[in-house]
């Protein structure tokens, strides 16, 4: 089984990428590929630009990576209560090639932030929108107060209760898929 994981952020030190990487590796007997949105740089989407460049290769490559997955692990950054511009842009470009961007793949959808709400607003937006774009959201998880609840030395959730919660969620998710 192959897991494709990514953060909805282009930050080189993305806390969402750290979370997605940690959680993707909790699944046993899988191969994991971590995508970096910096590998899919595109001009800001607009119909005039789309007429000029048509279907950019970076968006095609992103869709091809999703196609290789048996399971998606996605952790979204929250910028001003919504998706980050980097994620929204690749999502917009990809959806012009394939409306079902997530290609009916099962998804574990997450978010984290330095704040106490843990990206809850963007998580709710995505939870409502992603199914229209082919996401089969099986579970969601929010990690609040990233800096207090994630250990950068061990690259793992340091809060025992939250760590147990995500491990139980992964176990349940895994049992449903197998």
Automatic annotation (TrEMBL):
Domain NADPH-dependent FMN reductase-like per the UniProt entry, residue ranges: 1-138
SUPFAM superfamilies the UniProt entry points to: Flavoproteins
Gene Ontology MF: a single term: oxidoreductase activity
Pfam families to which the protein is assigned, alphabetical: FMN_red
Keywords on record: Oxidoreductase
EC number(s) from the headed UniProt entry: 1.-.-.-
UniProt xrefs under PANTHER family: CHROMATE REDUCTASE, NAD(P)H-DEPENDENT FMN REDUCTASE LOT6
Name of this protein: NADPH-dependent FMN reductase
Species the sequence originates in: Flavobacterium chuncheonense
Species lineage: Bacteria, Pseudomonadati, Bacteroidota, Flavobacteriia, Flavobacteriales
């Amino acid at each position: 089984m192959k897991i494709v994981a990514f953060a909805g952020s282009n930050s080189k030190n993305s806390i969402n990428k750290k979370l997605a990487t940690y959680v993707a590796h909790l699944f046993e007997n899988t191969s994991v590929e971590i995508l970096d949105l910096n590998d899919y740089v595109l001009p800001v989407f607009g119909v005039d630009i789309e007429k000029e460049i048509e279907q950019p290769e970076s968006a095609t490559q992103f869709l091809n990576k999703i196609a290789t997955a048996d399971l998606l692990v996605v952790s979204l950054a929250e910028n001003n209560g919504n998706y980050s511009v980097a994620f929204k842009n690749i999502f917009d470009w990809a959806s012009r090639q394939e409306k079902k961007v997530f290609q009916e793949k099962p998804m574990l959808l997450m978010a984290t932030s330095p704040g106490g709400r843990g990206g809850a607003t963007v998580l709710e937006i995505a939870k409502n929108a992603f199914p229209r774009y082919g996401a089969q959201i099986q579970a969601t998880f929010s990690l609040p107060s990233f800096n207090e609840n994630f250990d950068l030395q061990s690259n793992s959730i340091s809060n025992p209760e939250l760590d147990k919660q995500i491990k139980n969620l992964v176990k349940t998710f895994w049992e449903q898929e197998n």
